[in-house]
Write a structure and sequence with these properties.
Length: 213
């Protein structure tokens, strides 16, 4: 499915419970994925992942389904729960690489986090950065409001501190112009150029040129 843009907002509630052949999700704060993608839960067992079912989330954050019937033998064997993002029409029966929440069971429940090793393996509390509006990759000075650089010009030195993402994820920057979001492109490394064609520069550290003015 390629790379999914990282736009995940920490969920307010993150818990899954298993009882009498039923997997129940208590999760809020998930994003509406639109019509092309769905969420799918997985029990990780010694013999491999077992799907607990798929669901979508409305624009108001309501889960389309929160209780799923699963074979008791699979529930008994499950030691970890993983939530992934999958294509809505997905012929692949295995989990995608886009794991957003995971947790180990303690008794009949598991608390889910983005920092679990089976999810993004980082809670992003160390993420930081500062940006300047400038276009040092161009020869003119009359377009300085058209570039966003994660840069300390006194060095110059990069300012963006981000953890390395696992397979399946990419970062994406956004500028809000008159209230409307404009993508500045995706990137995997905080020290390289982004993919924001046609408005990207050719040098690091990570930067993007967008039409702000």
């Amino acid at each position: 499915m390629g790379f999914a843009a990282l736009a995940f907002v920490a969920c307010e509630e993150k818990e899954v419970a298993v009882l009498d052949g039923t997997v129940s999700l208590n999760i809020s704060g998930l994003e509406d994925l639109g019509s092309d993608y769905v969420y799918e839960g997985w029990l990780i067992t010694p013999s491999g992942p077992v799907t607990t079912g798929v669901f979508s989330v409305s624009g108001s954050g309501q889960l389309s389904k929160s209780s799923f019937t699963v074979a008791k033998t699979d529930i008994d064997a499950g030691n970890t729960f993983v939530l992934t993002i999958e294509p809505a029409s997905d012929p692949d029966p295995s989990p995608s690489a886009v794991h957003i929440l995971a947790g180990d069971f303690s008794g009949t429940s598991a608390n889910l986090t983005v920092g679990h090793g089976a999810a993004l393996a980082n809670d992003f509390t160390s993420a930081a950065g500062q940006f300047i509006l400038a276009t040092p990759s161009t020869a003119t000075m009359d377009d300085e409001n058209s570039g966003i650089w994660w840069l300390d010009p006194s060095g110059p030195s990069p300012t963006l501190t981000l953890p390395t993402l696992p397979d399946g994820w990419a970062y994406e920057g956004w500028a809000f112009i008159n209230g409307s979001p404009v993508s500045t492109g995706t990137f995997l490394s905080a020290t390289g150029a982004d993919s924001g064609e046609p408005f990207k520069g050719g040098m690091g550290p990570h930067h993007s040129q967008v039409k702000i003015s």
